[in-house]
Design brief:
The chain is of the alpha/beta class. The protein contains seven helices and eleven strands.
Length: 237
Amino acid sequence: MHFHLVTLFPKSFDSYLGESILKRAIEDRKIKVSFYNPRDFVENKWTKSAKGGLPDQQSWFRKRVDRPPYGGGPGLVIEALPIVQAIESAIKKSKLAPRTKSLAPKIIFLSPRGKQFTNDYAKKTIKKYKNIILVCGRYEGIDARVKKIFKMEEISVGPFVLTGGELPAMLIMDVMSRQVPGILGNINSLEEHRVSTSEIYTRPEVFNYKGKSYRVPKILLSGNHAEIEKWKRERKK
C-alpha cells in the first residue's frame, strides 16, 4: 500500500508516522508514504526580499504558492500549477500506466464539502487501489481548476472545517492501513470484525481508589463466551 501525500507541510506528519503501528508498518514495508511539496514545483524557488542582502541574513524567502482569490474575498488560494505538477509526480512515482484505468492511482481531494469517509469506503478503496494520492488543502483552498484536470474524489472526514488537509490525511491513512493484512498482527483486532464495546477492562481484577473498590464485572471472569458476547452486544447499542 503506497500513500502519496501532496502537502505544503510534510513535517507535520513526522510524529504520527514515527510512532506505534504505522511506524512498524512502514519499517516492515507493508505501507509506504511519499511526500510531494507543491513548493518544490515552483520555478525560481528562492526570491530576494525587498530589503536586499545575503541569504545568510535571512533576506531570502521561499517563493509563495498562494495568492489572493479572483473576485475578492478573505484569505489566500493555493495556485493550481504547483499542485498539478505535484500530483503528476505522484502518478509517475506510482509506476502505473496512466492509460490502464483499473491500475491508475486513486486521487482523493480532502475537502469539508466532500463525501463522508467511512470504514466501508476505506475497505473498498484498498481492495481496488494500491496507490492512493491524498491532496491536502490549506488556507482558503486550492484553485478549482485542479479538479478539472484530474479525476479526483472529494472526501470529508466529518461535519467540521479544519485549517488544512493534513489531519484528515493522517486519519485516512490510519483507517486504511488497519485494513492491510499483517499490520495489526491479528485480523480479529479489527473492531468491525467482532463484537466490541467501549466498556472494556484489564488487570487487576479489583483496585481501590479513595476508599472505594472498583471491580471487573463478574460476567467477564466467568469464561462463558456466549454470555460474554451477549453482554458486549447489549453495551454496544
